[in-house]
Write a structure and sequence with these properties.
Radius of gyration of chain B: 21 Å
Strand order of the largest sheet of chain A: 1-24-23-22
CATH architecture of chain B: 3-Layer(aba) Sandwich
Structural class of chain A: mainly beta
Largest interface: A-B, 50 and 39 residues
Shape of chain B: globular
Oligomer: heterodimer
Helix content of chain A: under 10%
Strand order of the largest sheet of chain B: 1-10-9-6-11-2-12-15-5-16
Number of strands of chain A: 24
Number of strands of chain B: 18
Largest sheet of chain B: 10 strands, mixed
Shape of chain A: globular
Distance between the termini of chain A: 18 Å
Number of helices of chain B: 14
CATH topology of chain B: Alkaline Phosphatase, subunit A
Helix content of chain B: 25-40%
């Protein structure tokens, strides 16, 4: 590395540190659940009144809704594993991963159902050979669903109309492409990919064009989610040695660790009003927490720099 | 299923409100831990370096390529998405998913060149637990010819015997299954069922479980609360078993179970609720973490062999299992979201705890599955079974740690040096426990492999 490049790296690192300093530390988090069972992928309903998440309990995994004040849990009755739900923009339906069984191993498909879990119908599944379809993300305009699938022998991102037709492959790379999320205007998809080494966050047009790398860290970056205004993405990273929630400002690509906790913090989700929800084991077991409007504080962070 | 074998301990108030059969004590357990350690220390001379062993059995087969044998320079179809990180031993790197273990590499050795001859869970499990395929049952139900050999815990408990009034071989976790088929090789084998493990389990909601006490339907709280009625019920159940051998075994198991249940002093040895909140949190509140803590307590109490089964089924919950390591799909999501950090936290806590209590030098800790996983990522974002080259982690018991034994080739397909078998590993930890050729031949057994001298 020449002297100029070395200086640039040091400057970028210092500016990044400045960003973190200006953030001033995370606000107190409100704890929404208390049972300590492992949880994953919390997702708020569009009206912000119901939180859907997946919970591991007794060696099983299933969907749970959290609603009311104080929050009460309402598990979705099911005899087979189903998890990783998302909401339709009108809040009337959900999409989720459902496990059917094949001889010897499970078979993941994407299903749609009414918001209470009733009337399940298959949205995406095998086509002639075993493949895994999972982690659906409903576009904000309500027209399409993105998901990850191994239809063609590698894990890629696909989108299809909500009737399951007009399927398109968005990514095409021998790497693993994972966990898609839609931009609020339904034009772009962010996802995690290891095409540059370990998992990084990337963004691409819904038709697969204009791929852009958003993060460059020596560690894992995963589970991106756009803020409601589209200006930022929250994601998980272990770049500081343990799993934390970071927020990336889309224009500048600067990032800030908004959880700063020695526990494992993962699976970020935004409320419709811009609060940030996540799963953490900071109180021993895994529960769901939320911190108020990090974007408002991040707007006051003066220095922006790529990282 | 009744759950009267459960001790609820959702808080730190010690034994639960449902504490069972609060009757009787046994004087032997009046010894406090310091007394016990003093007695042991007095008899140190000439004893083998290890007095006990904990086997952490990662059922389903963990991916060596994503944990302890990364190949960052391999093509993307092989290397996976994780980076290696430095450990506290120069030159040794492990996965970024295991940051706590990376800071303690001086306390363990990594064996990177294990191999054997089957990629079937059932038979591979039998190999891993007995060092032989003989008697192993495949997924399809075929039985490998030959006499089923005793599992490691059976041999250790047979040779070392009872060192306390607790059973000498305790298995924590459910019986190992492949699909709906229980595997062979978890028990006494040629030594007889009397050397089968005494089973315990832990459920995050229900606390400690004693599965053998849950097999009788119809036992109610009223009956449980009345010792005489309970014994009468047990006796009636025993009479219904018409096979004398089964009956004998049943009695033995029950005697063990009740010697525990009837003895509050004994129960406390597997009552993790007696640990401080800090210690329990260090291990992790999830099932495997608390099982590791239970294992430490049992070793401390003089149980010579404790096996902790990560899961009963090979399959992860996403495949209808109960969280095993058989990740033909979602390998990377499951590893980074759950399995890797759970192993990282619990194994780290176990090594730290044993070290702080002065028990690590006398306790072997072996972490392995029945095989590894394919170096090449399969078309479903997973890795399949791979028995041709995989890793295990060994610690304690006076082993030479802070080193890597063997190496895999650049793609991780085969051993590049020092190919070793599960039998070699077993021979090595038997040696640490003072079980050599003489002791084995007296049991009608032979050493299952060659000593891994670099470890001793």
């Amino acid at each position: 590395m020449n002297r100029f490049a070395c200086g640039a790296v040091i400057l970028a690192a210092l500016i990044g540190v400045c960003d973190q300093c200006a953030w001033g530390g995370p606000p107190p988090a409100r704890r929404l659940t208390h049972n300590g069972h492992f949880k994953q992928r919390p997702v708020w309903s569009p009206d912000g009144k119901v939180l859907a998440f997946s919970q591991h309990r007794g060696g099983k995994i299933g969907l749970v809704f959290l609603e009311g004040e104080p929050p009460r849990e309402r598990p979705v009755a099911a005899t087979i594993p189903q998890y990783d739900a998302c909401w339709s923009p009108d809040g009337k339906r959900i999409a989720y991963t459902r496990v059917g069984q094949t001889p010897g191993q499970g078979n993941l498909d994407v299903y749609l159902a009414q918001a209470d879990g009733s009337e399940p119908v298959k949205f995406a599944g095998d086509e002639g050979k075993l493949s895994h379809e999972e982690f659906p993300a409903w576009s904000p305009d309500g027209k399409r669903i993105a998901y990850m699938s191994t239809y063609e022998g590698n894990q890629e991102i696909y989108i299809a109309d909500i009737d399951g037709r007009n399927r398109q492959r968005v990514t095409n790379d021998p790497a693993l492409d994972s966990h898609p999320t839609w931009s609020p205007d339904s034009r772009r998809l962010a996802f995690a990919t290891n095409r540059w080494g370990d998992f990084e966050i990337a963004e691409v047009d819904a038709d697969g064009q204009n791929l852009e790398r958003l993060t460059k860290s020596p560690r894992l970056d995963d589970y991106p989610v756009y803020s409601p205004d589209g200006k930022r993405l929250a994601f998980v990273s272990n770049r500081d040695g343990n799993s934390e929630i970071y927020v990336l400002t889309r224009d500048s690509l600067s990032v800030v660790n908004v959880t700063e906790n020695p526990a494992i913090d993962s699976y970020p989700a935004w409320t419709p009003t811009g609060d940030l929800t996540f799963v953490s084991n900071r109180d021993d077991g895994f529960d769901i927490y939320t911190i108020p409007r990090p974007n408002e504080r991040l707007d006051s962070v003066p220095v922006k720099a790529p990282l | 299923m009744i759950s009267f074998g459960t001790i609820r301990q959702k808080d730190c108030s010690g034994l639960s409100r449902r504490e069972l059969l609060r009757i009787g004590t046994v004087g032997a357990f009046g010894l406090r831990l310091p007394d016990l350690l003093r007695v042991r220390a007095a008899g140190d001379e000439g004893r083998p370096p290890a007095r006990g062993m904990i086997l952490l059995w990662l059922w389903g087969g963990p991916s060596q390529m994503d944990t302890f044998d990364l190949k960052p320079k391999a093509p993307i179809e092989y290397r996976g998405p994780y980076s290696p990180i430095h450990t506290n031993v120069p030159g040794i790197e492990i996965s970024e998913l295991l940051p706590r273990l990376a800071l303690r590499a001086d306390r363990y050795a990594i064996v990177r060149s294990l191999q054997h001859g089957t990629n079937d869970h059932g038979i591979g499990g039998t190999v891993g637990l007995t060092s032989s395929q003989a008697g192993g049952a495949s997924l399809g139900g075929q039985i490998v010819p030959g006499r089923l050999q005793p599992t490691h815990g059976a041999i250790v408990s047979r040779v070392l015997g009872n060192q306390s009034e607790l059973p000498p071989f305790v298995s924590i976790g459910g019986r190992l299954h492949q699909g709906r088929r229980p595997i062979t090789g978890e028990g006494g084998g040629s030594l007889g069922s009397v050397y089968d493990p005494f089973r315990l389990d832990y459920d995050p909601e229900d606390g400690v479980r004693i599965p053998v006490l849950e097999i009788q339907q119809g036992l109610t709280g009223d009956i449980i609360g009345n010792r005489r009625a309970l014994l009468r019920e047990i006796d009636q159940t025993a009479r219904r078993l018409d096979e004398s051998r089964t009956l004998q075994r049943f009695d033995e198991v029950y005697q063990q179970a009740y010697s525990l249940l009837l003895t509050p002093a004994a129960r406390r040895f597997f009552d993790v609720g007696q640990e401080s909140e800090a210690v329990r949190r260090a291990y992790g509140s999830f099932r495997f973490g608390q099982c590791c803590l239970m294992a430490r307590r049992l070793i401390e109490a003089g149980v010579p062999f404790v096996q902790v089964n990560w899961s009963s089924h090979v399959e992860p919950v996403e495949d209808g299992g109960d969280g095993g390591w058989d990740m033909h799909d979602r390998n990377f999501s499951i590893l980074q979201d759950r399995h890797a950090w759970m192993l990282d936290q619990s194994l780290t806590a176990l090594l730290d705890d044993l070290q702080e209590r002065g028990l690590l030098d006398s306790t072997l800790v072996v972490t392995a599955g029945e095989f590894g996983r394919t170096p090449k990522i399969n078309p479903r974002a997973g890795r399949d079974h791979w028995e041709k080259c995989y890793s295990a982690v060994v610690a304690g018991g006076g082993l030479r740690t802070g080193q890597v034994i063997g190496a895999s080739d650049p793609l991780g397909n085969y051993p590049a040096s020092r190919p070793l078998s599960p039998g070699d590993l077993a021979t090595t930890f038997y040696e640490r426990l003072g079980i050599g050729t003489t002791q084995l031949t007296q049991l009608g057994l032979v050493p299952p492999g060659s000593l891994i001298e670099e470890l001793t």
